[in-house]
Amino acid sequence: MANARPLRFLPSGFVLPLCAVALLLLGIAAGVLLPQVPVTGLILRWAGIALLAAHAAGRRSVTPWIIAAMIAGAEIGFDAPSFAIHLRVFSDIFLRLIKTIVAPLILVTLITGIAGHGDLKGVGRMGLRSFIYFEVVTTLALAIGLVAINLSHAGAGLTLPASPHEAVATPPALRWDDFLLHIFPENIAKSIAEGQILQVAVFAVLFGIALATLPDSKRGPVLRLTESLSEVMFRFTNVVMYYAPIGVGAAMAFTVGHMGLGVMVNLGKLLLTFYAALVAFALLVLLPAALFFRVPIRRFLRAVAEPATIAFATSTSEAALPRAMECMEALGVPRRIVSFVIPAGYSFNLDGSTLYLAVASIFVAQAAGIHLSIGKQLAMMATLVLTSKGVAGVPRAVLVVLLATAATFGLPTEPIFVILGIDAIMDMARTMINVVGNCLASVIVARWEGAFDAEPVSEVVREGTVA
């Protein structure tokens, strides 16, 4: 018996997080059951947060720090809402730093990927496969949203606000020709300055094609420049990500402090319908697609955890884009595929946003007491398949598309203003699904191309994903 080893029921890395979760749950329970002694729950919750921080301190990844910061931010927002509201400046700093990365990163990585690839037919094939996948997945997202809202009838019996027109001004409807024109840049510097991702991507594709047609003597210097700049931008991303826990924690503190924790916990039937539809979409569409294309599920989930967490906390896809590109390249997706699929997906593969539009548009009809036949609902979904493609390039785009759809089908706009009351919470989940969906798309296209895990990963990228 001298050589007997003690039984270990859990890996050592799970002990601190589980203890932290236990303390957090006890703290929440104490706050509910012992409201006359609030300090008890406060101490327990902060002890749990301290354990999460201790766990993060022993890990090489920044993801545990981001998760701990999210929970700490929610606690600060609950304990001191007036103070938490003033923390928004720290999340805005993080978003500004990220915005300085996004457009230059897409520009140089796309140019490098197309011009360095050399095979323009291969680029065209990759683009066609990407858009086929985008259309199939977004259509299924709309279908799931449509089924979910028809099952729950979340809008039935809604009491409309007394003065809805004072809530927000109705923006103009989004026209297909306006979106088509918006795709093409008139000034690349202006597009970069305004963060117009799709315009930058179009310019980079055309520039990369032009560069690929030049002889090596002319192409080489420019290609080496863009390759070096892409490495610099990934290193820049690594530096900025050290600030991510502060920015994410501040964003969560502001959200809870501004809206209240009760809103986040008890959001009503519509919110439950939407979240259930997102879970169904993940299980019925994303998971089967990943299995069909033999995506390594565990590796993918580890790789996507950090950008998904950032997207959820900030409700901003842009904030997660640089890290998502870096994590997918570290996972084994070649840079030429990452730099094409993920930016393109930001306009053509916003799964969470399209599902939200399906749920919200039928909710509006239900709230107004308008019965829509199956044929009219399908016509509405067909319209959303087209109009949702402009979501990424237009300010307040989801609201624009929703109001435009309501106007097209003769629906009142008043119920939309009710949705705006909980839209921030819905936005967190749909943004996370947008990011996860685009990351998965890049892996699937790489598998489809036979290029997954086939090219060496840059040392800068490898270091950044474990830092």
Features:
467 residues; mainly alpha; Proton glutamate symport protein; globular
Walk me through what this model shows:
The structure is a single chain. The chain is mainly α and 467 residues long. The chain has a domain at 118-179 and 193-198 and 267-464: Sodium:dicarboxylate symporter (Proton glutamate symport protein). Helices cover 76% and strands 0% of the residues. It is built from 22 helices and no strands. Helix 2 (38-57) packs antiparallel against helix 3 (63-79). It is globular. The relative contact order is 0.15. Mean pLDDT is 80; it is low at 4-10, 161-171 and 262-267.
What secondary-structure arrangement, pairings included, does this model have?
Blueprint: H1 15-33, H2 38-57, H3 63-79, H4 81-85, H5 88-117, H6 120-152, H7 176-183, H8 188-194, H9 197-212, H10 216-241, H11 244-259, H12 261-265, H13 269-292, H14 297-314, H15 317-331, H16 335-348, H17 351-367, H18 374-387, H19 397-408, H20 414-419, H21 423-448, H22 459-464
Helix pairs in contact: 1-2, 2-3, 3-11, 3-14, 5-9, 5-10, 5-11, 5-15, 5-16, 6-13, 6-16, 6-17, 6-18, 6-21, 13-17, 13-21, 14-15, 14-21, 15-16, 15-21, 16-21, 17-18, 17-19, 17-21
